[in-house]
Amino acid sequence: MSEATVVEMSRVGVDAPTGARVLDGLSFELEAGSAVALVGPVGSGKTTVLRLAARLAAPTRGTVFVFGHDVTKLGYEAARSHAQRIGFVFESTGLLGNLSVEANIALPLRYDAPSELVDARVRHIAQELGIERELAEPSFRANASVRKRALFARALVREPALLLCDEPQVGLTLREATLVRDAVERRRAGGMSVLYADHDGELAPFLVDRLLYLERGELRATPSLRPTRTSIVPLPDRASLPIAAIYGSES
Question: Would you say 46 and 197 are in contact if contact means Cβ atoms under 8 Å apart?
């Protein structure tokens, strides 16, 4: 594994408790500063790949190296350091509902950084993503767009070396997704790598260097299944649309 390689998975297999194969013979590399999207239908194993890189799951077979280390052999301190270098954006969950949006974003910094630095970083990333006015709002009251951008903010507030993101466009309008994309690209310019998971590969406005097609736990050169468009496609700004375009007409 070269120093420029951030993630390297070799012949990785993951079996479910039932014995079903979630991943089978998966091999790929993610280079520093690059963005790769894993594309495949629901159940193809995309999220499992993200979880493997984040050390939230373990392979049944094969090896997973991240930052040059076998993630299955990390000791306590090495595992802690590994986690601090990764930002994970879940599809739509992951915020603590009893905490404010601000407190959720601050969690990765709260126990090892001065409070003044924490506050400054939280407000900076909130302004980048357009949610500074919602910081005091309890996260359980926030709408889907604010919650998704808060998940991105929490993942980026530590300035990670690796960003893992499951379905980046869910819940965002095109304008909101563009704000997120710009924040991600600024950090990619500084060397951050990104691994997206997406069901159809229609990632605009997000930018990727290459797509990897995943079906039934295996990588394919080209997709054999026709993707189905869903709400993951960024929505236009609702303010610019007629009511019928948002809610549908009765005709």
Answer: yes
